[in-house]
Fold these 4 entries.
Entry 1:
Amino acid sequence: MQTAIATVSLSGALNEKLEAIAAARFKGVEIFENDLLSFDGTPADVRAMVAGLGLRSVTFQPFRDFEGMPADRRDRIFARAERKFDVMQELGCDLLLVCSNVSPESLGGIERAAADLRALGERAARRGLRVGFEALAWGRHINDYRDAWEAVRRADHPAIGLVLDTFHILARKTDLGAIAAIPRDRIFLVQVADAPVLDMDYLSWSRHFRNFPGQGDLPLLDYMAALQATGYDALLSLEIFNDQFRAGSARSVAVDGHRSLIYLMDQLQAHTGVMDQSAPPLPPRARCQGTEFIEFAIDEGDAPSFRQMLAGLGFRCRGIHKSKAVERWRQGDINLVINSEKEGFAHSYNIVHGTAVCAIGLNVEDAAATLDRARRLLDTPFQQAVGPGELEVPAVRGLGGSLLYFIDHKTDLARVWDIEFDVPTYEGPDTAVGLTRVDHISQSMQYEEMLTWLLFYTSLLDVTKTSEQDVVDPGGLTKSRVVQAADGGIRIVLNASQSNRTLSSRFLSEMFGSGVQHIAFATDDILQTAARLAANGVDVLPIPENYYDDLEAKSDLTPALIAQLKAHNVLYDREGGAEYLQIYVQATEQRFFFEIVERRGYTGFGAANAPIRLAAQTRFVRQSHHL
């Protein structure tokens, strides 16, 4: 299937949009009229630029308020259409998108609409052009694709065809059954857009909240299966109105768009079992079996205090790299890597971000297949020089320029610790506190990036996404979403805020970019872990007494248990019979912190406790900085 994107989907001037579209490997572009009107050049200049970038102008859009206008307005409307045809011929574009009329002056009647379309088709055909008719969800008389198709069918002109837009159809929850009856050669264009499910008027919903396939909640696979039944195999284009996209990088958003279409077609093949003969199937989404390691980029000056913190948390150095200033610290199934090299990727990352998580290693079933899927989804592979005796571990670029490594147990990658590390001799007390594995990883990012990384994770990994939640921070609202494996093998929390005063936003300022803000470790007995942390001299985040007074009032927990929770600053949440207990280690200078959790059948993340925790962390930061 051919892919395209509308210029309205991206930020920037028209030339910047076209360059971004070409860089993202699209072949077609829909030229939005306003982009052309604001361009400092002629349509012929745009045609040359489009051709020079290896693109093709597939549509000029939109042409509004056309069908069903009163008789005294028709001559002027057709004259306006002829002017648009002039522009199209200069652009080298043969398809005009006409959207259904929203004017209060318009008159109803399918036959009237069909007659107008037929007359427009005659004019277009004389110039070798075509017209596609689309039903807007808020159209005055035609707002259903079935009525639009009936108008096209009755127009009965080879230059008149139908435009199908997923948003206009799915937002109204229109039945999809009639799509299969539409001849594929009468469908001139299919526009694809996803969106979150919102309760608002169709126009506002469409103009501000559309997003790429996989980033929203509309049943696109049902729609695509209905379309597939027609045999349609022509143009699939993205027309996205989204405030975040218009505030973000055009190049990044364009890549997201192409990735979303690749992922959509991959899902469709799995959904219907019908293979796309034009492209080989992708390897399946990678099933994550856990987090193999989390790597910190640290300079020599900060390393001693970081080691001391890890020792307090019960970690012990279990490996020294054979040729690099890299250490492996371990507890349970958790591996933390301290990289203090003075050259290479981690060193560069540290220079920019300071002490920070520079890489995450995921356990997957097939590392090579995961990397292959990532490449074909337009993710960016990463390679650096591999020294003697070292393994080449597959990796792609992740959030904030960090790395995402893939480890499997079917190759030598399973032996990376034995191959690359020596085990140091250790004498001393056992300070383990009962941490067992990585429970979840929380990443903070710019608000405009959130949909990008949501698509990145869900298209590459076998995870599902949760609905967006608003978390109350003393400095404003933070948007939060989670991607997670069904068995909890991996959980990644994505946080973003439009306020620059939230803890999430302040972390971005301190770190000079997006990244991992906190890591949660699991324990089987949080009260025992808390006691051991105290014995190790670890300071945890103090929780106000009011929290425990309220907990006692609203729960059936015994006074003795509440006293234990209070003594150790443990937060508590319950969903039905499932329980969740949390403690937080006080944040570092760059506002990175560790969390420790105990799950008792609980699948969430303690959302009810988030405002309490954020207020406590904000208070701690202000006190520590004497603000």
Entry 2:
Amino acid sequence: MITMSEKLPNFTSYINSPKNNGEKNGSLQEVKPKLLNGELVVGAAHNVIMLTPLSERDQGRMGSLFVTNYKLSFVPLEHSPYDESCQRNYLLGPHDVPLTGVGAIWMTDGGPVRRRRVGLNGDMPEKVKGLQVICKNMKVLTFSFVNSSKGNGRKIAMALVHHAFPKRHHLLFAFEYKEPYYRTLPLDLNMFDRPADWRRELERCDCPHWRITPINATLDAFMLTASPTLIVPNSSLDCNLIDYARHFKNGRIPIWVWGREEGAALLRSGELLPTDLALKTECVLFEQVRRIHPKLTPPRVIYLCGNSFTNSPSPNTLPPLGILQASYKKLAELCTPTTLGGFWIQDSQYYSILDSSRWLRYVANCLAFADEAADHLSRNVTVVLQEGDGVDYCAVVSSLTQLLVDPYFRTISGFQSLIQKEWVALGHPFCDRFGLPRPGSSAEASKDATKTGSAPQSAPVFLLFLDCVWQLTNQFPAHFQFTETYLTTLWDCAHNHVFDTFLFNCPRDRDLPMIKFQCPETYLSSSEETEGAISHASNTRTLVANRRDSYSLRIKNFIQRPVWDWSEQFSEQDKALFYNPLFSINKTPNTPKQRISQTSLSMKTPELSRLEPCTSIAGMELWSQCYERWLLPLDAMHSGVIQYHIHNYAVLKEIQQLNEKLSQLSIMANRQSNGTETSDSNRTVVSRFYPFSAGRRDALTGTLDSMQVSLIDASQLLDSQSLLNAPD
């Protein structure tokens, strides 16, 4: 008779994990994560199972789970070719998540069904059977510790809670990453971190009636969350600007961000404060803007959140940030089911849940405001965008407007320059919106919040902008050089705290660790525009000396790494998917002079060529690649926009081959090249969400071949696409 004790050694876990070839003599083979320079392991657990998402059976992969000061990393015991079939990253493995990309942590009973949210200050039980991590990009990772040593689950949970939600800004890994950085950014990328960059943009738009003022780089600065360089009307004196700023929220007076040589300009502004002279001050500023217009046309004010001064509501205004955050949470719940049963229940109510979130309605409203602003600019009318602090929806609508009216910003370098100008230089609070601690010590951050009266508010404003841009690329597939893969990758990289682009609230926070103000002459423009520059420089040195506290000393070795240097993360093969193969068909000029039609001989101002998008909510679609890419039941083969890109790349390659034949003018050469032509029958089969999720990955046999992506013309990338050359 066989006893129970004799059965136990042969007991198999109910979790169907793959065979472990690393077990030798009863010991588990150790695996290690790939660590960066300055990265340290703070928690580890072996014999952990990563469950397959949305699987009816508890299938998973056995491996080790690590928490470092940079990422949560799962290293499987067995290498799988499927891990290399998707987008690869030099900094992150296929199962790694940056700590700043962690949105929520749940404790489970070892499976995906029963769970309880882990509080940041709550007590942690002695035994943690499983963890579920909801990432900010809507990826869901579920781990089981039932086969791991006792206490490993609690150790991982505590390390993850402590390091994924730091209390101080300088505890982020960007301040510990010591790898040397050698900037290799494109020459046509404008970073907008020097007065020369703003002058370059002013000259590109050919707007002679505006000037650059360095007042914001001195002790008299009135717009503390904006760039040291501002562009204002020629007739505005710096001393008057200081007085005007007292009547605008956070000192956000109307400032120039774009214009056309006929006189129309695009301005951004904060809301008026309820002071006695607020309306009078606004009229004075608008009069100055009107007078520099060649036709003395008064500006048009667009209130993005309603006119708070007159309390006039509008049904199409954009919501407060709290409501936007609640809308995003409903959208995230729809796109992050944890069980297959929950997925099918939500799928049966998909459109009602999506409509109740109102997310697409807010996307449509942003596009409607941008279309309205672009329409006024095309008719040579100056537009002033006004909203709250002038750092959230102003950035969204202003950026979208420039995408509609300026073809330069539809290129990859132009789009990156646009984000540098509207979001980085003009002070969008990325730390607050992404839920990161504010720069500086806790006491200093609290003091600043009390002084400005603005408590940190998390809200996906930048994601809202990227969603709007995707809607434009979907409506105008040949007008943008970048693809939705580029936009999705950019959203993922926004939560990668190795790069400084999205790591600060404003340029002053960014410049403090670099002690950039030690050379104040770099912030001053030409001598005729910088009268009194010596006194400004002296004031700047005093300002920096007063702000050099323990925080600046701790991070004085901080290395700035802009996210736009894509070679730091991706290979040439992965970067190839950033380029739109149709863009070469619709090449457009880059400068305002070339954009404007010169055929009219009348005295009328030529209208600006612009895109006219559909702004109805009925025309909005859900950005599936970004929100649903981790849902395996939806990752079908032969579907998705990626299939059009594969077809378009193939057609362009055939055109290139035909052009080569014509140039050779040889019948023999034609016969020799007939075997190399591309046909529909040998094109690679990919899944809907490639390259982020491979779905039935056994159908994928290769990725992009090695190539050169140094040139931005997509037609020059044809031979590099292994999607066309890989066998079935």
Entry 3:
Amino acid sequence: MRRHLDIRAGLVALFLAAVAALGAVVWRTGYVQALQPLSQAGESDLALAADRLVTQLSRYREFAVLMADHPALEARRAGGPRAAADNALLEATDRTGTAAAFFLSLDGRILAASGPGDPFDMASTEVIGRARQGALGAGLGMMGDIRVFTFAAPHFGADGTVAGTLIVVVDLAALERDWRGSLPTVYFTDPGGRIFVTNRSELLFWREATSATLIAPEGRRVALSVDRVGGHEIRQQDLSPYIPAEAVYLTDHLPVIGLTGHALIDVTAAKRLASLQAAAAVAICLFFGALLFLATERRRTLALANQRLEERVSARTRALSETNAALRREVSERQEAERQLTRAQADLVQAGKLSALGQMSAGISHELNQPLMAIRSYAENGTAFLDRGRPDAAAGNFARISQMAGRMGRIIQNLRAFARQEAAPATEVGLAGIVDATLDLVETRIRAEGVSVDWTAPATPIIVIGGEVRLGQVVLNLITNALDAMAESVERRLRIRITEDGMGHALLTVQDSGPGIEEPERIFDPFYSTKAVGAAEGMGLGLSISYGMIQSFGGKLRGANAEGGGAIFTVELTNAKAAA
């Protein structure tokens, strides 16, 4: 008995080890597959940031070329008054947002300037030298503590030769204001590897010594962990809370402005997707293993019962044989009769035993055959789809296995719909359906936290202009924020209403019974949050992002404290009928 227990324990341990190995393989495969679209999206973001920077600088390059031939500068070079040339440069820099402009003679004298400053401190000798040779010079520089990009355009005289130089200084910090803090982390380095332009200010003036080492402005060296996964370079760093700790590293050289673009794309989403796939694979294997273990245990129990029955029959047969032998010694006719009786009894026992076995086998087969065959078929199809690199099709087969839990199936269907990236323009969307689907997603949490939901869909469907997935994200954010706000409240009541204002707008209100809003005027500011700092508590971007989504639909999002206590958020959207 002990030996059988040890064998079963060993088989279970071997099965669990195999399931763990399979989960690790599925996680690794899913992670590698998820990195590909993540890297492609990151390359697009990096290219967009690079194009934006090049486009912004190109505007000032054109300004330098055009302004170099301004009549006021020509007059100044010919010996005219400086005040007119200074005013022309000042007026031009004010209109274009240029930090400063200087008009130099060939011998380096400042003939005109938009303000105080030394152009030779801001523009390198190489940049000015290119302009004196008749070409457009461009490069990085510093104006005190301000990072600048300088353009040097040649000023041609009447004979077609270079007669002067116009230096145009662009404040790089002003260009960064439009995209500072946006995702993902992007920065641009000069030929020496120094970070000169970025949307993360804490990275300014860091220098890349090697692919695995960064040097801080004060000279401190920071080592990075670099790994390659599926052809992608993965960097692990601890530089800032706003820089992903583990990210795909991408680069793009920009010869037009002499900079190199870099991007760090957070891999958290790819890891989360891989973990979900691995968890699904492990759960299915454990489910099948449990079914197989139960079936094996039933068969083993039946075999033990049959063995005990056979032992009892054998013992009884031996007793009867001994009795028959004694009777045969006394009466031969009785002995013959006893032998026939013994054979008849043995036949009846065997027939009864086989009948019992047939009935039990039929019951077990009827109970297990059909679900096992269906589960095995879906599992084989799911495995085949995974082998072909089609995880979505495999997920469909796995969803069919779990249809016996209909509630779980509906939740899985809703989760798959909110996640996809919605790139389509705003269309007509049923507002009540969005609310129903969102409440379905958070129903488990609502029940667990004892929240009373006051929600009744309007009698007449209200159709608005918006994006189904993005609008669902907004509603989910408002509801989960309300649940978070009521976590410490004695009375937890969530009230949701959809109305029309009679002016072509539909209004969705979400009201909670929490403590209310401390600073209503700041709730839509990025990174503003009343929650504790931490990955699980949010970064204060939910309402800011929701505000932007609603604005993209032509609507409005408002938040205030309700008269009876708690907070109330109102989403105002264009009614589709009014729009038509």
Entry 4:
Amino acid sequence: MALSPVPAPGRPPGPPIGPPLGRPSDSGVAPSRGARPAELPPVHGALICVALPALAICSEHGQLTGEGLEGVYAAGRRLLSRCVLRVAGREPVALQGRMATADRAVFLGVLRVPGDMGPDPGITVERTRSADGTERITLRSAVARPLRLPVEIALGTDLANLGAVASGRSGPGLTASVHGTGLRWTGDGSSVAVTADPPPTDSLAAAGVLRWEAEVAPGGTFSVQLRVREDSPTRSSGSPGAGAGRPGGHLLADAQAEGDDARPGELLRASVEDLRALLQRDPAHPADVHLAAGVPWRCGPVTAEALWAARMVLPLGTRLAATTLRALGRTQLSGAGPGSGRIPGPLRDAGPHLPPRCTGIEATLAFPVVLAEARRWGLPTADLEELLPVAERCLGWLRRAAAGDGLVPDPGPAGPWRAETQAHAHRAALLGADLLDACARPGGDALRDSARTLRERFRREFWLDDRTGGRPAVARLPDGRCLSHLGGWAAHLLDTGLLGGGIPAQGLLDRTESEQVARLLGTPALDSGWGLRGLGTKEPGHNPFGHRAGAVRVHETAVAVAGLAAAGHEKEAASLLRGLIDASEAFAHRLPEMYAGEQRTAGGRPVPHPAACRPAAIVAAGAVHALLALAGIRPDAPGRSVSTHPLRSAPLGAIRFSGLVVAGEPFAVRVGRLGLGMVEQAAEGLQLGV
């Protein structure tokens, strides 16, 4: 899990928004083993309001005490660390904290009225806090007599970067000064102010306290609204989205799901909200928007995860894919060297058995795939023509990288050769060839030859026969040995992508091998009941909390659901999908990027991972991807056709998806209880098929 993104060559780094822990390089060299990263503060119990570049991290009780990561942040700097409410000298009894939307949390507390002898609280306290630092506090009285209550709010900040906060180096709090209707703090060339409405009756700057005398009639209310704003001209030009405002929701359609089971609709709604909250602009090119990888640790430059996420939400429109591809394309390496055409990216840990992998190679192989599939969903011709040269250079790098023995090494020329990378490379070659042919560009035949060679080498050198039917190797090492550790990575072998006419591309495996992989993915060693484990329970080094060693990674589970469904393995696909939906219910429909791969038991709940990003782009997009596998939509906008291939078992009963986008127009599809699909809305002139 990379926690400190590496800026691409030629791009200025954004403001620090993650702790500087073991910054990986893009040189193919693993981080120093001598450096010990600091322990991350747990965030599994936090309520995180997100509207990047703003976010607020809160505990369930609603008070901001300055402990851990609590606070209101903008572009990675903590603007407010303390916001402690007291009424009549006491803190409200916290009853509930919940997310209302992706960018807003609501907290409910109560107070007994001073002088009352009974146990019943007479005052309800509701706090609504938004990612942008706006907070509304409302006191409601159920007491039959007028009340006069002293209300005070203690505020404070350290103006620390999130990385410093996470590593315990935030420094002391600053001293406030009275400023208008609130307080102001200045330090390190920056300043932040909190204003209050109505104005306080008293302000104690030295203590950072604002006070009111609230008069509340029987059944009446008293409200205070706080606004936090940063006044830092030197920082505004460098923050993500500076001067451009929040990206609009038009980038992602307002998809909806309804049916016999209400939970898919809740999961889809929350996922689209989270995706919109994670949108951020390229600082140098404000028109280009991409998804942050995850909050709170990975909100840096555009990454491979942003590209995979854009691919999985193509049913919500192609504009996000176009802007993400454009932003990544600007980082592509040029020149005549061996790296020409590759997209740079940092190394990322690959688990206990392999060295770190290169996310740049992953992004390079994903680029032509996303462009080819975006064209199938209806990418405008102008975007296609602009991005096609970048895809051609990616495919040129792929041909050169595989020219030696047909396989693509990762991260360096000396290997290792990972099965997951070969799956990405094979898919890129086939979909890239199809794309070049469709655009009347040369090179398609050479790519198909590369794919054929890669497929032959893979089946000869990566498939390990045994008495149970065999299994794919996770990697081949430079010394010729193959590692046989089975994990969720195998799901990528079933993700083939779509060619012209919505026809699935040929995969690396033959039918018998695909059936064996499907069977293995459905065994209790990998299917935890909550999703797919990153490493099987019987493998050495298994750790239910290891992000590549046994934890459930939602992205891999979603890839497995879609791949299994497309290949006709409905039993295994339905089991993983039901587990994912059950887990989402336990996480209030906002899935973290991973959670413990503990085996599901009767009455049990999925166990959170303390350091997992939540929300995360590839997870929210993965939820969309997995749910839409129920309908099996296969578009071919250039060929003016679309077909559906739903799961015949209808594992969630009848379901209807609306608000999708195919060929630039609204699209809706219904799957009945008998597993029959019916297109209810589509662009005029599209030929429909089932």
